[in-house]
Design brief:
globular; 193 residues; binds protoporphyrin IX containing FE; Cytochrome p450; single chain; two-stranded antiparallel ribbon
């Protein structure tokens, strides 16, 4: 039942949770937001709707999502217990791998540019960064999830400037079915055009 519930949570919550974490980091890092908007303006111009096909031309935006998956993996505990003898319970703490200073330089810093120096796949081929799991039970929704988050994020940033609301942004994490923001994000959009 627990496993079924966690799979249902994966279907419904994780995409929204990832987008909330990305937006939280963006309002905390105005320089990153400006760089994303400069990329959007250079690639898209203004006054045009963005489609899925355009996302391939937005590498910086994709790096920001990747860095968010590293710092705030929405599903941080992988149930690779399936690979371990019956009677043993074990989970892989992907959050710990993704914050390990032996694996990542300055792991607590939100720094999408790290993937310009070395690109690392999030799709399960590199166990330093496996927010969708890996192997035979890897998340079957990973491509849909990334396509959705990239497109929504591009649309949100193309049309609006985002700032924190008066209460600020609190990055405290809460581990329930997924790794959520303890205090939901509230931010203020201003139209850019
Ligand atoms: C950002 C969004 C998402 C993240 C971070 C995520 C992450 C994960 C992770 C870590 C697992 C478990 C891997 C393991 O236990 O070893 C998983 C499993 C699963 N995910 Fe996702 N997921 C996301 C979105 C989605 C979406 C959009 C769908 C469906 C459309 C989906 C469907 C599933 C299913 C059915 C499983 C169970 C696979 C199995 O047990 O064989 N996920 N996901």
């Amino acid at each position: 039942m627990g496993l079924l519930a966690s799979r249902l949570a994966c279907l419904t919550d994780t995409v929204a949770i990832l987008l909330e974490w990305v937006m939280a980091q963006i309002v905390l890092h105005p320089g990153i937001q400006s760089k994303m908007q400069a990329e959007l303006d250079a690639v898209m111009g203004r006054g045009h709707a963005i489609s899925n096909a355009d996302v391939a031309r937005l590498p910086y935006l994709q790096r920001v999502v990747k860095e968010t998956l590293r710092v705030h993996p929405p599903a941080p505990l992988l149930s690779w217990a399936r690979l371990i003898p019956a009677g043993t319970t074990a989970m892989v703490n992907m959050w710990a791998v993704e914050h390990d200073p032996a694996v990542w330089a300055d792991p607590s810093t939100f720094w999408p540019e790290r993937f310009e120096e070395e690109d690392v796949s999030v799709l399960g081929g590199d166990l330093r960064l496996a927010p969708f799991g890996a192997g035979r039970r890897v998340c079957p929704g990973k491509t849909l999830a990334l396509a959705t988050v990239h497109l929504w994020l591009a649309q949100l940033l193309h049309r609006f400037q985002w700032a924190p609301a008066d209460g600020g942004v609190d990055l405290t994490e809460r581990l329930g079915m997924s790794l959520e923001m303890e205090k939901p994000l509230v931010c203020k959009p201003t139209p850019r055009w």
